[in-house]
Amino acid sequence: MRRVTALPTLSVGLGYRPQFRAELFENRPCVDFLEIIADQYFDAPPEKLAELDLLRAHFPLVPHGLDLSLGSVDGLDEVHVDKFARLIERIDPPWWSEHLCFTRAGGVAIGHLAALPLTRAALDTVERNVERLRRKIEAPLILENVTTVVAVPGAEMDSAEFLSRALERTGCGWLCDVANLHADAVNHGVDLEAGFPRWPWERVVQIHFAGGRWRGDVLIDSHDSPTAEAVWALFERVAAVAPVKAAILERDEKIPLFTELLDELERARRILAAAPPRVDAPPIADAEREGRNAVGMSPPTPNDLMATQNTLARLFTDGGFRETYFDHAGETSASKDLAALDRESVALFAESLANKRVADGRKTLPWTAKALGNDFARLLRPALGGPAPPRRHADDAATVVARMEKDPTVPTWILDLARYELGFVAAATPGLVCTAKRLRWPPARLVRAAQEGGHPGPLKSCFAVWLRWPNGALRHLVF
Ligand SMILES: [Fe+2]
Q1: What spacing in Å lies between the alpha carbon of 210 and ligand 1's midpoint?
Q2: Less Cβ crowding at N or C end of the chain, within 10 Å?
């Protein structure tokens, strides 16, 4: 068993995003470590794994998971766990992280982080899943607090108690997202300062900080703006009492000049440097048996939780089901608690899921998205009415291109550009050896037209080919 204080100090770093790879290496001394999105390296093509090895050669890396769904009463997806275990073996990090949430239920992939019901049954589920996880992954795990957009009725405790108990029972450290804590306090009218001593600060290993965005009167953890002053104040407050080993700036959208990110890192570094050293942190890594005894297990009857999670997953991803459910005021609800579910917050969560898929689609087909502008969302949004598909990014990209093909208002050259970008998506499919696209314009002219807002000029047909050599290298040819 290792104490938080025995973990190495990594200081201050960035959530790695390929968009700023060049600037990152130009400013190597200013970034102490990187957090990588683990899921992006599962089933990854060789060039993505080469990127991972390059990052590892220059920075300490901490993998951050999105889709283990540690709170799913359905249990863990063992195939997903095996992929995570292989990644951890490859990079040998000092610790790794996941979210205290669920991302799927009843066979429905939500595609985003959904807050758990604050109940003993949910704690039992998390403990059970983490115990199973530890049979395959020994590296210390830290759990992140997510924002609660939809508060599930029937809570048996508040968020501070739920988190404290979850960490005690699993023996995990805390990845304290101060922006999420702030957003929840603002959105749910909680006085964080008044309840400050009730949070498990002694278990903090790492901090996440980021900027959010107001949507109506709700603060969303959008990671698309500079960190707000109120979040910086909370960061300082936490660093003064918690054994923080590391802090990561998360920036996913509207990425600014790299120097602005570096300024935020420098401010975080100053805060951590000013914090007093801590020596009295509790053990983490292995499940803490005394924690389990102190809290006690509730009866092993997860049926209610399963029904609740299954219903929530459908409400978040199925617009038709959502309308019917709320129009009949909970007659169809799986449990009496869910009858009190707030329709507006469920709709907001569903909306943010759809927005996230559109944003991810923009990253998968960046030139097409630039050429289409707002039409990109118009084309993709109607196709987002169901659960997230298994290969979400690739499948959503294929969907948008299929819709473009049927839409006579889309200029032919932009359709050509989209088909060209889809070639790269297809070339990253595991096991695919060769793919080819016939284009009406050379790709260089298509990309320049998107870049400059012009037109690719006269027709000049060509073939774009992607070949995967036996050694894994990707060869791309245009002729
Ligand atoms: Fe976070």
Answers
A1: 8
A2: C
